[in-house]
């Protein structure tokens, strides 16, 4: 894998070799901490590489290549958490050499009113929030801004 500029967001992770459907692409690894600890640690930072696991009160503070895999509403990968709480990124389909690796973030909380998506795919929902989080926010009347889809 190689890191380079991405049309989705800043830096992206690209494969150098073809990847077959179902293959383990990477592990999302790094120090683990509570969400409260992460909120305190990154209170003044706009960009974090946190991945919620297990009971959703534990996060992985991303370290390594996997933290640069961008969100997409029409991804070529997905995440899977095993019994020990390790998080793997798996290929959803065959991926050609040179393709950017992506997965759906399914964000379930944020201090922000929006978490815009910039994937610009036909399936783009305009947000990195999970569908359940979008419904929860609407039900509670929480503010939420969806990015308007741009014309290609």
**How would you classify the helix and strand content by structural class?**
alpha+beta
Strands, total number? 10
**Rg (CA only):** 16 Å
Largest sheet strand order:
3-9-8
Poorly predicted tracts of residues: none
What count of helical segments does DSSP give? 2
Largest beta-sheet characterization: 3 strands, antiparallel
Average predicted local confidence, pLDDT: 84
The dominant shape is globular
What letter string, H or E per element, gives the SSE order?
Answer: EEEEHEEEEEEH
- N-to-C span: 28 Å
Residue fraction in strands: 25-35%
What portion of residues is helical?
A: 10-25%
Topology:
Layout: E1 2-5, E2 11-14, E3 24-28, E4 32-34, H1 35-41, E5 50-53, E6 58-61, E7 70-71, E8 77-81, E9 87-91, E10 102-103, H2 131-140
Parallel strand pairs: 7-10
Antiparallel strand pairs: 1-2, 3-9, 4-6, 5-6, 8-9
Defining key terms:
152 residues, alpha+beta, 3-stranded antiparallel sheet, 2 helices, 10 strands
Written overview of the protein:
The protein has 152 residues and is α+β, with helices and mostly antiparallel strands. The protein has two helices and ten strands; from the N terminus they run ββββαββββββα. The protein has helices spanning 35-41, 131-140, and strands spanning 2-5, 11-14, 24-28, 32-34, 50-53, 58-61, 70-71, 77-81, 87-91, 102-103. Strands 3-9-8 form a three-stranded antiparallel sheet, with no helix packed on it. Strands 4-6-5 form a three-stranded antiparallel sheet. The protein has a two-stranded antiparallel ribbon with strand order 1-2. Strand 1 (2-5) and strand 2 (11-14) form a beta hairpin. The longest helix is centred in the last third of the chain and has 10 residues, at 131-140.
């Amino acid at each position: 894998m190689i890191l380079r500029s991405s049309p989705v967001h800043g830096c992206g992770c690209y494969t150098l070799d073809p990847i077959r459907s179902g293959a383990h692409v990477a592990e999302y690894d790094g120090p683990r901490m509570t969400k409260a600890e992460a909120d305190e640690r990154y209170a003044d930072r706009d960009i974090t590489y946190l991945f919620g696991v297990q009971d959703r009160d534990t996060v992985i503070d991303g370290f390594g290549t996997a933290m640069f895999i961008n969100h997409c509403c029409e991804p070529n990968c997905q995440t899977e958490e095993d019994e020990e709480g390790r998080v793997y990124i798996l290929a959803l389909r065959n991926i050609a050499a040179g393709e950017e690796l992506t997965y759906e973030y399914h964000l379930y909380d944020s201090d922000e009113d929006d978490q815009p998506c910039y994937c610009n795919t036909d399936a783009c929902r305009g947000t990195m929030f999970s569908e359940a989080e979008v419904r929860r926010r609407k039900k509670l009347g929480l503010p939420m801004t969806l990015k308007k889809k741009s014309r290609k």
